[in-house]
């Protein structure tokens, strides 16, 4: 298990991307998922997911695992899976925390 990214809710995606670029981050992926506008920003192998959404969001951590058996049994499913390219992810409640669990296809893991 490793940290994949940190999710950060933002008011306006374009201005937030500009701020992170001034801090040395680069856009590695930008897309829309439903009503959410999302940009993944990278610096020194750190990924930050900027999320503009009409809904109130809290920040989250995303943990990458080999398969769903690594997700703790006491974690309560909230939503997902969301499938993109070579991965799928789902959100779970674990205690008071919301955690995104990302499973990368075996053939795409580095």
TrEMBL record:
Ranges where the VOC domain occurs: 2-110
Domain of life of the source: Bacteria
Family matches, as PROSITE patterns: VOC (PS51819)
InterPro entries: Glyas_Bleomycin-R_OHBP_Dase, Glyas_Fos-R_dOase_dom, VOC_core
Protein name as annotated: VOC domain-containing protein
Taxonomic classification: Bacteria, Bacillati, Bacillota, Bacilli, Bacillales
């Amino acid at each position: 298990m490793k940290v994949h990214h940190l999710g950060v809710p933002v008011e306006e995606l374009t201005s937030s991307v500009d701020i992170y670029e001034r801090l040395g981050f680069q856009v590695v992926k930008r897309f829309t998922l439903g009503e959410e506008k999302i940009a993944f920003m990278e610096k020194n192998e750190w990924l930050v997911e900027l999320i503009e959404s009409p809904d109130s969001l809290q920040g989250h951590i995303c943990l990458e695992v080999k398969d769903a058996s690594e997700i703790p049994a006491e974690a309560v499913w909230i939503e997902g899976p969301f499938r993109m390219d070579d991965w799928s992810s789902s959100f779970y409640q674990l205690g008071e925390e919301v955690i995104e669990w990302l499973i990368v296809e075996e053939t795409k893991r580095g």
